[in-house]
Design goal:
Structural class of chain A: alpha/beta
Helix content of chain B: 55-70%
Distance between the termini of chain B: 53 Å
Strand content of chain A: 15-25%
Structural class of chain B: alpha+beta
Order of helices and strands of chain B: HHEEEEEHHHEHEEHEEHEE
Shape of chain A: globular
Number of helices of chain B: 8
Radius of gyration of chain A: 15 Å
Largest sheet of chain B: 5 strands, antiparallel
Oligomer: heterodimer
Strand order of the largest sheet of chain A: 2-1-3-4-5
Shape of chain B: rod-shaped
Radius of gyration of chain B: 62 Å
Largest sheet of chain A: 5 strands, parallel
Strand content of chain B: 15-25%
Largest interface: A-B, 21 and 24 residues
């Protein structure tokens, strides 16, 4: 049984805490990587001049990507992920407050794997995170990347 | 091809020239002919009187010689006529009708026999005259004279030639004059006509025709110019008002699209930014309840649960507002829908999400309406959920949906036997955030019927309600015929 890690891209500190709390409850053993804006997420995925591409990428099972991010938006991050052969396979779940139909359409058009509207009721939100963690970390399979993944 | 030669296709210029020439030709011909006839007559009369005088003189001179039957004398008398070239024959007869003397230009000719008297006057190429010779009142014989008419004929021929030469000269002059004169009439008219054609083809109302004189043509030209001036003025006004209208429409359109974009941005912002703090309040409320339960007394826990409940309610309000704004700004996809099937689906969902079910829900099968499927679903979901909710306190709960069609418009009625409402508040019913019940009686956002109203109005229909307190309510949704085609 492999342990995939989760990349959470979330700018709001409150949401960061609540999301992390819900995910830890749902999947205590998983590695959760938190990036607080789009640019940081891109640097983590593709590397930059200061640091090379992260090795943690090899064990990434899913990205929980907030729709509304400062500077580089969630959709822009999604577009960049889908346009690079190293990352175009990565499962991306758009996690957002919104349920605007055109945002949903746009996200799927750019290749999101899932779209989740965060519930205001924390019990329900917690339930959502549990379902996500269970599905993407245990039910779903992703392709092998790098040497760390066994055949 | 043959049309070109028909009178109605002739240009005005040609018609005028043709008419002028026809009339003048006719005139000249008549004048020439009458002149020739008169000349001919005059010449004949003159010739006749000359010959009468001549024969009179001859008769007078011959009278005595005839009385004595002196042929010698008579021959001498008439021989004097040889000098006159045109005299063909002269014969003198006695009373018995015998020829006493004769003068012939042609040798073969003989004097006519008086037993059958010759025709006198102008006959053929000759003028013949038979004159009695008298002496003291007694007839002593007859004088016959025959004159050739070649001089007369020659004269008339010359005269005809002269007349026609003059006529032709006049005609040529007239042609020139006609060509000059027709311009006076045809040019203003052809200018008018070509101006009118140009205006008709190019819609150029700045064209004016030159005006000559004060006659009917001048007045016509003035009237034409005035008319075109009026049209130009009106055209300018129309074009100006059209441009103004287009500018206004463009302004309104850009204002509208700006407002729409602002509404989109606002909705986007509400969707994301207003929900986020609520989630934080709710989330940390629950976290507080879970993690710090030991440090709070019962009152604190009650407050906390109230905070959380209010947060969830506000979330519901935001959801309702977003639905309301979405049905206002969403583009509509109009097609025919089986409303009965949609209603059945909604009832299934309500059954699944609520514990207390109505005793009886009847939906008339086969109701078909034309509209936007998503919007219709939202509207009827609200109406059915209301019927569901407000009938929840009755012992036997009945919900009934029926439709009737008249003149192409369809009216759908949703009837329940619930608490109903007082008709004096009917105006407040469809206004956002207006509620007729306290949250303790019935929960609700106050946005459902406002959303129904918005959807129905976007379908150019109307929604109205009939009710009385404790006697149930009936909501009617009327879709107009124009949309139901």
């Amino acid at each position: 049984m492999e342990h995939y890690s989760i990349l959470v891209v979330e700018d709001n500190p409150d949401d960061q805490i609540l999301t992390m709390r819900a995910l830890r409850n749902a999947s205590p053993d998983s590695t959760i990587i938190l990036k607080e804006d789009g640019q940081a997420a891109l640097d983590f995925l593709f590397g930059n001049d200061a640091s090379p591409r992260s090795a943690q990428l090899d064990s990434l099972g899913v990205i929980l990507l907030d729709f509304k991010l400062p500077k580089v938006t969630g959709l822009e991050v999604l577009r960049r992920i889908r346009s690079c052969p190293d990352t175009d396979w990565l499962p991306v779940v758009m996690v957002t407050s919104s349920d605007e139909p055109q945002e949903l359409r746009e996200a799927y058009r750019l290749g999101a794997n899932s779209f989740v509207t965060k519930q205001i009721d924390y019990s329900k939100f917690s339930e959502q995170m549990t379902v996500l963690a269970q599905y993407w970390l245990t039910v779903n399979k992703v392709p092998m990347v790098g040497a760390s993944r066994s055949f | 091809m043959s049309n070109r030669w028909r009178w109605q296709y002739w240009p005005l210029k040609a018609k005028l020239v043709f008419l002028t020439l026809s009339i003048s030709t006719l005139g000249i011909l008549l004048v020439c002919t009458s002149l020739i006839v008169v000349e001919n007559r005059t010449y004949e009369e003159q010739l006749e009187s000359e010959l009468m005088v001549l024969s009179g003189i001859l008769a007078e001179q011959s009278a005595a010689a005839l009385l004595f039957e002196d042929s010698q004398q008579l021959a001498t008398i008439i021989s004097s006529l040889r000098k006159i070239e045109t005299i063909e024959q002269v014969c003198v007869y006695n009373t018995a009708g015998d020829v006493m003397a004769e003068l012939n230009s042609a040798t073969s000719a003989t004097c006519p026999n008086l037993a059958t008297p010759p025709e006198v006057g102008f006959v053929g190429d000759y003028y013949r005259l038979l004159e009695p010779v008298t002496l003291d009142g007694d007839t002593v014989g007859q004088l016959y004279l025959m004159s050739r008419l070649e001089v007369l004929r020659e004269h008339i021929r010359t005269f005809i030639l002269m007349a026609f030469t003059i006529g032709l000269t006049i005609q040529v002059a007239l042609v020139w004059v006609a060509f000059r004169l027709q311009r006076l009439v045809s040019e203003p008219i052809s200018e008018l006509s070509s101006a009118a054609e140009q205006i008709a083809v190019n819609h150029d109302y700045s064209i004016r025709v030159p005006v000559y004189g004060k006659d009917e043509l001048g007045r016509l030209g003035n009237a034409f110019n005035e008319m075109i001036g009026t049209i130009e003025h009106q055209n300018r006004k129309i074009l100006a008002s059209r441009d103004e209208l287009e500018r206004t429409v463009a302004d309104r359109t850009s204002e509208l699209s700006l407002a729409n974009r602002e509404l989109e941005a606002f909705s986007f912002s509400v969707s994301h930014d207003l929900r986020q703090p609520l989630r934080a309040i709710e989330g940390f409320g629950q976290a507080l309840e879970e993690d710090c339960r030991g440090q709070l007394n019962d009152t604190g826990l009650d407050y906390l649960s109230r905070i959380r409940a209010a947060t969830v309610r506000m979330g519901g309000l935001i959801d309702g507002l977003l639905v309301l704004s979405r049905v206002s700004r969403q583009a509509m996809e109009i097609q025919k829908h089986d409303l009965s099937a949609i209603l059945e689906e909604i009832v299934e969902e309500l059954h699944a999400t609520s514990d207390d079910r109505p005793t009886e829900v009847t939906i008339q099968p086969g109701i078909e309406v034309v509209g936007d499927g998503r919007m219709l679903r939202i509207a009827f979901q609200n109406l059915l959920a209301n019927a569901w909710k407000y009938s929840s306190k009755a012992d036997i709960r009945k919900i009934d949906v029926s439709a009737c069609e008249s003149h192409g418009s369809i009216t759908v009625a949703i009837r329940d036997n619930g608490v109903g409402f007082d008709m004096k508040y009917v105006d407040k019913l469809f206004v956002a955030f207006n509620r007729l019940h306290t949250p303790a009686e019935f929960s609700g956002t106050g946005l459902g019927l406002a959303t129904v109203d918005r959807v129905v109005r976007r379908h150019f229909g109307e929604v109205y309600a009939e009710s009385s307190v404790d006697n149930g309510a009936c909501f009617y949704v009327k879709f107009p015929a124009s949309v139901q085609k």
